[in-house]
Specification:
Blueprint: E1 3-5, E2 10-16, E3 23-27, H1 41-44, E4 49-53, H2 70-83, E5 89-94, H3 96-107, E6 112-118, H4 127-140, H5 143-153, H6 156-161, H7 163-174, H8 178-190, E7 204-209, H9 217-226, E8 230-235, H10 241-244, H11 246-258
Parallel strand pairs: 3-4, 3-5, 5-6, 6-7, 7-8
Antiparallel strand pairs: 1-2, 2-4
Helix pairs in contact: 2-3, 4-8, 5-7
Length: 259
């Protein structure tokens, strides 16, 4: 099992695609794992060597004591790149992975050619809303929040017409480690990038789902207005648009990265 040892943890990763191609790192959302990107592999590996990893507290990566911070999750990425001797890469993240993309763009721009932040915002929710979710998982486990989260991740139409995909995503979420999930909830809860976005001096693509209740198109436009070199694209989907609108998502991301 390919893992990189961090100072206090192990990070699981997988490579896909041709050796020698430019590296594109893909970062998962809260409560999922690297398989959230399965629908991107065929298209993206035509141009890139993909490096997918399970964010700390998720999948096959270590679950260390929380709470985590966005700085901690971003430093994990830098340790991963260092361990694999990758000096400069492209980076694409969805939801929490999108926040990681922006944090890396702010604090470590020299390591990244371009970044993509999908379903992201400079500040998400309130401490009260995040603490309520944390308390629910502490009390009753992941099943206490899974159904409500899935309803926010995908539109009703997509949920109705793609039952197999919904079953897969529900299983991933319900089987997420509750301690890792809680620790990562704290990282998103405490994140506030509103005063730092202008420091991103590399090209950025911001993708927002038209029907996303958590990170709205208004949130995405705010990011694009404050990141100096950025492009905004609104996609007809809810929160996990790389799954719900896979064809359009893949096209727009590749168009941006290859331009």
């Amino acid at each position: 099992m390919p893992t990189v040892k961090l100072p206090d943890a192990e990070l699981y990763y997988e490579f896909s695609g041709p050796e020698g191609a430019p590296i594109l790192v893909l970062s998962n959302s809260l409560g999922t794992n690297l398989h959230i990107w399965d629908g991107q592999i065929a298209d993206f590996t035509k141009h890139f060597r993909l490096l997918r990893y399970d964010t700390r507290g998720h999948g096959k990566s270590s679950v260390t004591p929380g709470p985590y911070s966005l700085a901690q999750l971003s430093n994990d990425v830098l340790h991963l790149l260092d361990a694999l001797q990758l000096s400069q890469v492209y980076f694409c993240g969805v939801s929490m992975g999108g926040m990681t993309a922006m944090f890396l763009g702010i604090h470590s721009p020299s390591r990244f050619n371009k970044i993509v932040a999908c379903s992201a915002a400079a500040k998400i929710g309130t401490p009260e809303s995040w603490n309520a979710r944390i308390d629910a998982v502490k009390k009753d486990g992941m099943k206490a929040v899974a159904s409500a989260v899935i309803e926010r991740w995908f539109t009703l139409t997509f949920r109705t017409t793609h039952p197999a995909e919904m079953a897969r995503m529900q299983a991933i979420l319900e089987n997420a480690n509750p301690d890792g999930y809680i620790a990562n909830c704290a990282a998103v809860r405490d994140m506030d990038l509103r005063d730092s976005l202008t420091a991103i001096n590399i090209p950025a693509l911001i993708i927002s789902g038209t029907y996303d209740p958590g990170t709205t198109p208004a949130d995405g436009r705010y990011l694009a207005e404050h990141i100096p070199v950025s492009r905004f694209f609104e996609i007809a989907a809810s929160h996990i648009s790389n799954i719900e609108a896979q064809i359009v998502f893949n096209r727009e991301v590749l168009s941006f990265l290859l331009a």
